[in-house]
C-alpha cells in the first residue's frame, strides 16, 4: 500500500479510528477500537506510527499496514490517558493521564521509563522544543514543568485557582506558552531562559477568547512564520484564530454544529483540521476562514484528530 504524503486520522466515541485522504475527503481505512474511547491521537515524525490514547492504555498502530491490531501496547496508566506525543526524533513518547501522572515511554523498549506525579488529573502535556522539558496542566489548575535532565519538577504555577487547565501549547521556538482553561480564558507567558535549565514564565497577556470552555489551544508551526497565530477550539462551536502580535482576533471559523474538541495546523500553517461532537472533522483554509472539506463517516462525536503533512524525511 503506497503511503500518502499527508497522514490524517480522527477518532470518535463510535470506537473507531479513521484515516482520510485529505484532498478528496475519502476514508480509506477504519480501525475498530472496542475497548474504550480514544481521547487523543498523535503521529510519529516519520509518519510510520499512530498513537491512540485510550482508557487506561496507549496503543501504537502501523500507519502503513492495513491490519487492525496494534503493534504495541503501553499499559501502566490506571485511568483515562488524556495526552500523548512524540519526541522530535520519534525515539520516545510522553503521556498524561487522569491518574495524576505524566509518563515517558521508550518506543524501542517495553514498559514505562519514567513517571512524574502531578497529584491531580492531568488534562494536557506538551514537550518544549528543547526536547528536555515537559509541561503539564491539570484539573486543579496547576501548570508544572518537568525537567527531564534533572528528573524533577523545575517550576510550578497556578494561573487561576481551582480552574482546570484544559490545554497547553508552546511556540515552536520556545518563546511563548499558552494555557487555556474551562472559563474560556487563555493565559500567555513569555518563556525566559534562566541561568539554570529552569524555564521562567513572564506573564504577557490574558485573553478572554470564548464564553464557553476552551477544549484545545494551539500555536502555529515554524513554516507559518513570520505570521504567528493561536487557534482556540471551544464548546461554543467555533474556532478562533488570534494574531499572536497583540492577540487580536483574525478569523472565526463557523460551521460546526456542536463542541469543537480538537484542532491541528498543517505544516505550513495555511490550513486547520478540526474535530467536533457533530461527528465530523473539517479542513479549513485560514486565508478565507472557509471549510473546504468535511470528513463524514463517524457515527458519534469526533473528539480528536492528528495530521502529519510535513516534509518527507529520509530517515528509515
UniProtKB/TrEMBL annotation:
Subcellular location: Endosome
PANTHER family (UniProt xref): G BETA-LIKE PROTEIN GBL (PTHR19842), TARGET OF RAPAMYCIN COMPLEX SUBUNIT LST8 (PTHR19842:SF0)
Top-level taxonomic group: Eukaryota
Organism whose genome encodes this protein: Vitis rotundifolia
Function of the molecule: Component of TORC1 complex, which is an essential cell growth regulator that controls plant development. Acts by activating transcription, protein synthesis and ribosome biogenesis, and inhibiting mRNA degradation and autophagy.
One Gene Ontology cellular component: TORC1 complex
Oligomer and partners: The target of rapamycin complex 1 (TORC1) is composed of at least RAPTOR, LST8 and TOR.
The keyword Repeat is assigned to this record: yes
This protein's name: Target of rapamycin complex subunit LST8
Residue stretches of each WD repeat: 1-30, 74-108, 115-148, 207-252, 253-294
Major site of localization recorded for this protein: other
Key words, A-Z: Endosome, Repeat, WD repeat
InterPro entries for the chain: MLST8 (IPR037588), Quinoprotein_ADH-like_sf (IPR011047), WD40/YVTN_repeat-like_dom_sf (IPR015943), WD40_PAC1 (IPR020472), WD40_repeat_CS (IPR019775), WD40_rpt (IPR001680)
SUPFAM superfamilies, A to Z: Quinoprotein alcohol dehydrogenase-like
GO biological process, one term: regulation of actin cytoskeleton organization
PROSITE patterns: WD_REPEATS_1, WD_REPEATS_2, WD_REPEATS_REGION
Gene3D superfamilies: YVTN repeat-like/Quinoprotein amine dehydrogenase
Family classification: Belongs to the WD repeat LST8 family.
Amino acid at each position: 500500500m503506497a503511503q500518502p504524503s499527508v497522514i490524517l486520522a480522527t477518532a470518535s466515541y463510535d470506537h473507531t479510528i479513521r484515516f482520510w485522504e485529505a484532498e478528496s475527503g475519502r476514508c480509506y481505512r477504519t480501525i475498530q477500537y472496542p475497548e474504550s474511547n480514544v481521547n487523543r491521537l498523535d503521529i510519529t515524525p516519520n509518519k510510520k506510527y499512530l498513537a491512540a490514547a485510550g482508557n487506561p492504555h496507549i496503543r501504537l498502530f502501523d500507519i502503513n499496514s492495513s491490519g487492525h491490531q496494534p503493534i504495541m501496547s503501553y499499559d501502566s496508566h490506571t485511568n483515562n490517558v488524556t495526552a500523548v506525543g512524540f519526541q522530535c526524533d520519534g525515539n520516545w513518547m510522553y503521556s498524561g493521564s487522569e491518574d495524576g501522572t505524566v509518563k515517558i515511554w521508550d518506543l524501542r523498549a517495553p514498559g514505562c521509563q519514567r513517571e512524574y506525579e502531578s497529584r491531580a488529573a492531568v488534562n494536557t502535556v506538551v514537550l518544549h522544543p528543547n526536547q528536555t522539558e515537559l509541561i503539564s496542566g491539570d484539573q486543579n489548575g496547576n501548570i508544572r514543568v518537568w525537567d527531564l535532565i534533572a528528573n524533577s519538577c523545575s517550576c510550578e504555577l497556578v494561573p487561576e485557582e481551582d480552574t482546570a487547565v484544559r490545554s497547553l501549547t508552546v511556540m515552536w521556538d520556545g518563546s511563548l506558552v499558552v494555557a487555556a482553561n474551562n472559563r474560556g480564558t487563555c493565559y500567555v507567558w513569555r518563556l525566559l531562559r534562566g541561568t539554570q535549565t529552569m524555564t521562567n514564565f513572564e506573564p504577557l497577556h490574558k485573553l478572554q477568547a470564548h464564553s464557553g470552555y476552551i477544549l484545545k489551544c494551539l500555536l502555529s508551526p515554524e513554516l507559518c512564520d513570520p505570521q504567528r497565530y493561536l487557534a482556540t477550539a471551544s464548546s461554543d462551536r467555533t474556532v478562533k484564530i488570534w494574531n499572536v502580535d497583540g492577540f487580536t482576533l483574525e478569523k472565526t471559523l463557523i460551521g460546526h454544529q456542536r463542541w469543537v474538541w480538537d484542532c491541528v495546523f498543517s505544516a505550513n500553517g495555511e490550513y486547520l483540521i478540526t474535530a467536533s461532537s457533530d461527528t465530523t472533522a473539517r479542513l479549513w483554509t485560514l486565508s478565507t476562514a472557509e471549510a473546504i472539506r468535511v470528513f463524514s463517516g463517524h457515527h458519534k462525536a469526533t473528539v480528536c484528530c492528528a495530521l502529519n503533512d510535513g516534509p518527507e524525511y529520509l530517515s528509515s
